[in-house]
Design goal:
alpha+beta, two-stranded antiparallel sheet, about 25% strand
Length: about 290
């Protein structure tokens, strides 16, 4: 599969690059916990994805680039998660997330032989179909009732309750008969994606998540290129975490201020694709050295 991946990107004009494992600043992806490493008198961080160095290369003029890189998320461990795993990530200057979704489907189809047919539905459509609510309009009382199984702390927190319903009531149904791409995410889930307007004028995040057999495989953005807005979002996420050890990635922020070209980027869980293509039940089975045997 790795040979096929290299061949695919070579044929599509995307340059393979290496990215650092010990990075000068922390990725602050929402929901992902970074790991700090003491290197003498310096602090370094294991990446939750190779996003920051890849974007620095795009900003420096390298064009379309890709990497299959180790990634680390210390709060994730289950049959589909390992604290250390491999992230396949690439960036396409001049593309938006819709065009990139088509390339993601093409790559996965070539790697696995799966039919690339894909249903595209919005975040709000998914909630209407599987939970019978509008996540933007549902009352706090109704939301608490639906999420009561998660406990009072989550049920009483609007965002946490909606995230819980997405994970438990919606995601298991996605990608069952064909791929499902979830789009039109609310503004609070924009992360590093730019915003766009839907046909009805509602502002949403320009991003998608791709599912197969109830499992998220890829997360793609039409990348935010406004450096001021990006720094504000990153600062807000760091403040929310209240963790003084999470040093900002100053070289990344400097590169974004210098100018990120209009581009789309996507992160694909390579180990998950391998797991599903081989009919395995746990992502650890794809690894010679999973977390408990490393």
């Amino acid at each position: 599969m790795l040979s096929a991946t290299r061949r695919f990107f070579s044929e599509h004009g995307v340059l393979e690059v290496d990215t650092p494992v010990l990075q000068g600043g922390a990725n602050v992806d929402p929901g992902s916990q970074s790991l700090m490493v003491a290197c003498g008198s310096e602090r370094r961080f294991l990446p939750t994805s190779p996003e920051h160095p890849l974007k620095r290369l795009v900003a420096a003029g390298y064009g379309a680039v890709w990497a299959l890189a180790p990634a680390f998320r210390m709060n994730e461990r289950s049959h589909r998660h390992q604290p250390e795993f491999r992230m396949l990530e690439w960036y396409r200057p001049g593309w938006d997330e819709r065009r990139l979704l088509e390339e993601v489907l093409e790559l996965i189809a070539q790697l696995t032989g799966w039919d690339r047919a894909c249903e595209v539905i919005t975040y709000r459509e998914a909630f209407a179909r599987h939970v019978a609510i509008d996540p933007e309009q549902v009352s706090a009382t109704r939301l608490a009732e639906l999420a009561q199984a998660a406990g009072p702390e989550i049920a009483s927190d609007r965002d946490a309750a909606i995230d819980y319903l997405l994970a438990t009531h919606i995601e298991p149904h996605l990608g069952r008969e064909r791929f499902t791409a979830l789009t039109g995410y609310p503004l609070r889930l924009a992360a590093q994606a730019r915003l766009r307007s839907e046909a009805d004028g509602v502002r949403v995040a320009a991003r998608f998540e791709l599912y197969w057999r109830g499992i998220e495989l890829a997360n793609g953005y039409h990348e935010l290129s406004d450096a001021v807005e990006l720094e504000a979002r990153l600062g807000q996420e760091r403040s929310h975490r209240q963790d003084p050890t999470l040093a900002p990635d100053l070289r990344f922020e400097q590169a974004m201020r210098a100018g990120l070209p209009d581009c789309a980027g996507v992160a694909l869980g390579f180990d998950r694709v391998l797991m599903l293509s081989l009919g395995l039940s746990e992502v650890a089975q794809t690894m010679a050295f999973p977390w408990d045997r490393a």
